[in-house]
Amino acid sequence: MDLVINFTFFLKQDYDCLFSGTYPTLHSKLVDFQEELITLQVIEDDSKYWDALSSALAVGWLDVVVKLLRLHGSYRPDQIGIRETENGLVEAVALLITNMPRMRLELSDGKLGECYKTKPDFMKAWEKWRGQLTKLDCTPYWLQCDHQQTREGLKNMLQIMLGNASKLSDATCHWTELFISHLLYIRPFTSGLESMFGLAQKCVQIKPVTSHHKLMNLLTGILGENTEVVLAECSRSFGPWMIAHAMELLTAGSSHAEIVLHQEDSKLGGICMEELHRLAYAQVLSSHELTWQIAPVYLVTCPKQGMGMLENIFYRQPVQHKKVLLKSLEICRLYELDIIGSNLMKFAGVHDWKHGKKGSAVYWLQQAHDDVRLNKIAKQLFNFVGKSVSDDSLKQWEGLIELLSSETRTAGGLEFLNRYRDFRRHLQQVYAGVADDAAKQAAEALISLMKNSSTPKQFWLPLLYDSLKLLNWREHPLFNVSQTNLLMNKLQELSLAKLLPDYIDADLPSEALSSVRLALATNLGRAILEE
Amino acid sequence: MALIPLSDDSPPLHHQIHRFPQTQYIDSLRWLPQLSPSLRHLLLSTTTSSSSTLHTLSLTPTPTPTLTPLSSLPLPSRITSLKTTPSLIAASTLSGSLFILSSNLNSNGFLKIEAEKGLHFGPILGVDLGGGEGVECVSVGEDGRVCVVRVGEGSERVFDSKGLVSYTAVKWASPVEFVTGGLGFGLQWWDMRGPGGVVSKFKGNWGQKMKSGIVHSVDIHPSRKHTCLAGGSSGTIFAWDLRWQQQPIMLSSAEIGDGTSQAVSESEVWEVQYDNYIHSSNTGSISSSKILPAVMCSEDGILAVVEQGQEPVELLAEPCAINCFDIDKENPSDIICGLEWESLVLLTRP
User: Fold this and answer.
1) B236 - beta bridge partners?
2) Are A400 and A380 in contact (CB under 8 A)?
3) Which residue in the set A293, A333, A360 is minimally distant from B142, CB to CB?
4) Which residues of B touch A399 (CB under 8 A)?
5) Which residues are bridge partners to A131 per DSSP?
6) Which pTM was predicted?
7) Is A382 within 8 Å of chain B by CB?
8) pLDDT (tens digit, 9 = 90+) per residue, A433-458?
9) Coil, strand, or helix at residue A494?
10) pLDDT at B163 over 50
11) What are the E-state strand segments in B122-278?
C-alpha cells in the first residue's frame, strides 16, 4: 500500500516535469484549469471543473479534490439557503473523500484520509467506506438536486471511488495514471508487486503510448520483477551511475535479484554483476583527473577486483604534484591501504631523486620506510659529499641533515651524515683555535665515526687526513693505544680494499696516505709512553 | 574528524553560508582590495583537465550575495600559491613560473601581467609579497630555491640549496626578514641584510611518537613578529616563538595524544591565517606569550578557528576537502573558501 501512495506522490511531484511536453498528462490538465479558474463566474456550470475533479480524484490527489469541491457555488452565503440539498450532497462527497481509508502509519500535514496501521483494520474500514459510498449513491436526495452538472459530476465521482473501470479510464490520460487509479479503487489490497505487471500491460492496452519514454520502459521492467530487463534498461537508457546505484535498490527485498546480482560468474571474470557495474562506474570516474577521487568510494566495496583497480588509479596519478599525492595518501589512510600508500611515497621519492630534489627524495623514502632505496641513495650522496669536503659546502647540507635528524628513526646509512657533520663542527673549532676541549670532542667524534659500520669506506682516508692536526696534537696524544690501533687497522683494511673493483679513490694528495701513516705511528709511540 | 558536525539544515548557526557552485576546480582564491562597501572583488584561480585560468569576480553582498564573473586570464600551468597586497598580485605555478600582476583592477576587472619570472625548476610551492616598501616578492619551491624579486626594478636574489632541501611555504615577517617552511615540519628564518640567508632554524623537539610531516602554510601576525604560525600534515598546527627556540607551541595535532592540544583535523592542514575577526578590538590585551587565534582549513573538510588552550570552533564541516580560504582583511567577518568539489563558499560571521 505504501508503494501505491509513494507512486501517487511520485506522479504528483515529479513526473510532470519528466513528461512535460511529451504526453498530455493529468497534471498539465489541472494546471491549465487552474489558470482558467479565475475567469470562471459560475464554476459548477463548467464541464472542465467536473473533469478536473474526477481526474484528480482518480489518481488520489484528495487534498486537491476537496479544495476544488469547496469552491462549489452552493457554498456561497447567498446561495446556501436556496441550494441546501445540493450543498449537502457536495459536502457529503467531500466528507467521504476526506475519510478515505489509507493503509499507512501516518500522513504528512495537509494530506487527507484516515490511516490504518494493519491490513485487517484497513479492510474493515474500506468495506464500511464503500458501504457509505453505495448508500450515498442510492439516496433519494439526488432527485431533489436541480443542478444537472452537479448531480452528474458528483455521481461520476462516486463511481470513480466505487472503482468503475470505464469511469477511471475516462478520468485519466496516461497509462500510469490509469494504473494508479486501479490500484487505488479497484485493487486497494494489493501488496508487493503481485499481478502488477499484468495490470500495467492492460493499462497500456487501454491507453497506448505512441513513443516509449525510457523511464516507462524501466517502470515496466520493475513492475515485471524482471531484474535482467531492469538492468538492460538502466544500461541502455541511463548512465553508469544509474546502473551502479540501481543494484542497491534491486537487491533490497528481492531474493531473486540478490541471487542474480551477487552470483559470481566465470563469464565476468569471477566477479558478480554488482561488482562489475561498480567497477564500470569507478572506471568512468577515474578517467578524469578531477573526479578520480570519488572512485575509491565505489572500489572499496568491490571485494574481488576493487583493490587492484584502486591501486592502478593511484599509480596513474602524477607524483610530481605533491598536493595530489597527499590527497591520494589521505585516501589510503582512510581506507587503511598502507602498502599502496607507502608505494606511492616510494614513487615520489624516486621521482624526486631523479630530478635532483635530494631532500624531498630522502623525505619521501623515509616516510615510506624504504631502507633499501635509502641505503642506495646514501652511497650516491656520500660520493657527492666526498668530493666537496670543504666546510662551506657542508653548510649547504645542513638542511638535509636537519631533515634526517627530524625523523626519529633515520633509515639507512644516512645517519653517517649526522655524525660527519658533528665531527666537522668540532674540527672547525679546533682550526679556529678553540681550546683543548674541542680537540677532545673532535677525536671522540672521529673514533665514533670509524667504529661505526655505516661510515662509508671512501671517507676513511679523508677523515684521517683531515684529522692530522688531532693525531699530531702538541700538548698530549688525543688517542690512546687501543684507539690508535683501531685507526691503524682501518688504514690496513683500506689498503686491502683498494684492490677491490668497486673502490672509489678519494680525491686527496698523493702523500696523504704516508703522512697519515706517519702521524698514526708517532701517536702510537706517544700513547705507549703516556700509558 | 568533525568535532561538531554541521550542515546547512542543522539548527541555525550564527554565521551565514552561501555556496556558489563552479564549473571548474578551484586551486586558490583571494579577496582583492575593496573598491566600495557594496561591491567587492575576488580573485579565483581554477583549473580543468586542459587549462588553468585566473579569474576576477565581483561580489554583491546584498540582498543575497551574488557572484559575477568579470574577466579571466589563461595561464600556462596550475596556480600553486596566490598572494595579494593593496597594489600587487603574485601567482606562482606548478611549472615554476611566477607572475606579478597589478591588483588595481580597472572597471572591467581586467588583469594585466606586469612581470613573469622563471627562476625555479619545477613547482613553486609558496609565494609572498612584502619586504622593503612592500614590493618584494619571495618565492620558494621544491627545487630548494628561494628567490627574492624586487618588483619594478626586476632585481633578484636567488638562494639555491641545490635540491638538498625543499621549501613549501613562505611569509614575510618584516621588510628584511621572512620565514620559510618545509619538510620534516622545518621552519627557517631568513634575513636579507648583509649576505642574506638562513639565520635561525626551527627543528622541533617533537618527541618519539610524533610522525614527521610537511608545513603547507605559514603566517606571521604584524603585531607579533617573533611568532610564526605553521600548519601542515596530520592536522598539525603549531607556533614557533623565536624567543623559545626549539620548543613548538602546539595548537592542534592528530599525532600527539597527550591532551595538551586538540586535533581539529586528522589530515593535511592546507592553510592557516591569523584571524583578525574576534579579537580585532583587544589584540593588545592578550598576553604576548599567547598565540593569537587563527583560522585553518583541511583536507578532511574542516574550516575552524583554533586558539591556544581552547576547543576549536568549527565554522564549516564539509564532506570534501577545503583546499583554500581567505579572510577579508578589510572586513574580517567574511571568509571565502574553495572546496574540492568545485564550489566556492562565502561565510559571513555575525
Assistant:
1) B232
2) no
3) A360
4) 144, 161, 164-165, 182, 186, 188
5) none
6) 0.76
7) no
8) 766 778 888 888 888 888 887 787 77
9) helix
10) yes
11) 124-130, 136-141, 145-150, 156-160, 167-174, 177-182, 187-191, 197-202, 215-221, 224-232, 236-241, 249-252, 269-274
Distances (CA, A) of A321 to A167, A391, A418, B56: 69, 34, 30, 25
Percentage of chain B beyond pLDDT 90 is 51
Q: Is A351 on the interface with B (CB under 8 A)?
A: no
Burial of B160 per CB tally in 10 Å (0-12, 13-18, 19+): middle
CB atoms within 10 A of CB A134: 12
Whole-number pLDDT of residue B99: 94
Query: Any CB–CB contact under 8 A between A316 and chain B?
Result: no
Q: Per residue in B300-347, pLDDT tens?
A: 999 999 988 888 899 999 999 999 999 998 889 999 999 998 899 999
Report pLDDT for B10: 43
Sequence-separated (6 or more) residues with CB below 8 Å from residue A46: A40, A149
Answer yes or no: is pLDDT of A125 > 80: yes
The separation between CA A502 and the C-alpha centre of its own chain, rounded to angstroms, equals 52
What's the rounded Cα separation, in Å, for the pair B275 and B293?
Answer: 6
Q: Are strands B294-298 and B302-306 parallel, antiparallel or unpaired?
A: antiparallel
Average pLDDT, integer, range A275-287:
90
The complex's ipTM works out to 0.89
Taking any CB pair shorter than 8 Å as contact, residues of chain B touching chain A are 25, 48-49, 78, 80, 94, 121-123, 125, 142-144, 161-166, 168, 182-186, 188, 201, 203-204, 206, 208, 210, 212, 214, 233, 267-268, 299-300, 321, 340, 342
Residues of A numbered 407-466 whose beta carbons fall under 8 angstroms of chain B's beta carbons: which are they? 407-408
